[in-house]
Sequence to fold (333 residues):
Amino acid sequence: MTSLVQAMLAGDRRALSRVITRVENDGPEARSLLAKIYPHTGNTHVVGITGAPGTGKSTLVNSLTQAYRRLEAPPKVGIIAIDPTSPFSGGALLGDRVRMQEMAGDRGVFIRSMATRGSLGGLARATADVALVLDAAGFSRILVETVGVGQAEVDIADMAHTTIVVEAPGLGDEIQAIKAGVLEIADIFAVNKADRDGVNKTVMSLEMMLGTSMLLVSHHGKVMKVAGAGDAPGWKPPIVKTIALRGDGVEELLQTIERHRAYLLQAGMLQQREAERLRHVLLNVIEDDLRQRFFQRVGEQAFRKMVVRLLAREIDPYTAAEMLLQGESRNSR
Ligand SMILES: Nc1nc2c(ncn2[C@@H]2O[C@H](COP(=O)(O)OP(=O)(O)O)[C@@H](O)[C@H]2O)c(=O)[nH]1
Ligand SMILES: [Mg+2]
Fold:
């Protein structure tokens, strides 16, 4: 097992695939692998790419990766796709897959798609673990594509150093397409499909929303804080127009990501974000472990019986929880 980790650290791609598979499968072996890997991590920049289905996230990840690989000193780029319709997961149109294959020949690029089954929390943890492996293997930029629906957007913001929210014209009413919650997580907006009618309208509604939320923030006295970027005072999320299909604007997007990274570094915020990220990781693991231990000790059956009693109104949830938890400590003695 140690030699597997060594091979992976030395750049062996097959070893990398195997480590990732084992880590994804969870369990004691995964944990001991991660323990060996962890000291070699902390050198990557995770970029989350989120937005509604069809906005062009996969296409953007594709052209962004190629732009990174064209740099004079190209970083190794890891791609993690959580979107089941992503061409990275094999679920897209033929044209997209052909483009993916071009990239698959590049040894500086590693693509992994994650299964969406299981709990959202479990998926977030698995994604974070895979990112750790890629980090240790020297992938200094990791692009994570997520389905832009619901909780996943927030989860990715917890995990990423830089979050890009992708918008596109023609997704119906602009204001509706730009959900309020998204403003809080976006470090950068990419308005993709700039070859289409209505781009400027989309950009303008974004600017308006950003302006309004900035006004609101200063109205409440926190003048320094602007919208987006979680707690990054002084960073106003830039809006970058792209045509991902042709690669237009993608270099500017890359430069904007790097500028955000430099900004976080300079303001001492990269460290702070990292600490926040790790706080989430640790809490995630603890929550999962507590739940697992609880069921191991109390048993599914006792839990289900208690649900039946709840249903019959024989007992209330708080008393039930107390009883189950007490039973747990009795059994563990
Ligand atoms: N016109 C136009 N179409 C695009 C652009 N980028 C992506 N697309 C197309 O939009 C569709 C959805 O793209 P995809 O990357 O799968 O979106 P995702 O669901 O957000 O990952 C595909 O047919 C792409 O070829 C663009 O810049 N302009
Ligand atoms: Mg996609």
